[in-house]
Amino acid sequence: MIELTQEEIWQQIDSAAYLFLNRTFEPRDNQLTIVLNEAIANEAKKSRREFPGGLDLAESTPIESTPDCRIFTLSWTSYVSYCVTEEMVGSCGDYGNEIYTGRLFRRYSKSNFLDFVARDTGAHFESYQHYKIACQNYVIDVAATMTPTLQISSRLEAESLRRNYLQ
Fold first, then answer.
1. Contacts of 71 by beta carbon, 8 Å cutoff, 6+ apart
2. What average pLDDT does this structure show over 143-156?
3. pTM (2 decimals)?
4. Residue 118 within any structural domain of the chain
């Protein structure tokens, strides 16, 4: 098994074709874990789609997580704030003033979320950073004083972790 650096895992998350939020949970007070499923345009299921009223999508390919897709886990040992927004409403708004790096897994130096956190919270002893994960089903914003710990799992490993967490 090849050991990857945190930066290499970050790059793999960011270069995924698509991501779906699997779940968020707080293992302890003020800790946050986010589990993401990688997804692809599943060419094996390409088909013609026709809808009532004559809408014809011609050939379409579903975007879904397959058994070969990876599971990504992002864990913060503490956070300042986080927000999970439904993707359709989270993709609107004025973002022209924001500055970030990344595609699906972004790190912001200037953002509306950072402005919100600065305005609506206080008593911060350390500076914090904004991370955004752009999924197909949700947009997740996290403000934290540290970079998350990142892991890549197979579906089998992820299921074992899920079962252990639920016990």
1. 22, 35, 36, 37, 38, 152, 153, 154, 155, 157, 158
2. 89
3. 0.83
4. yes
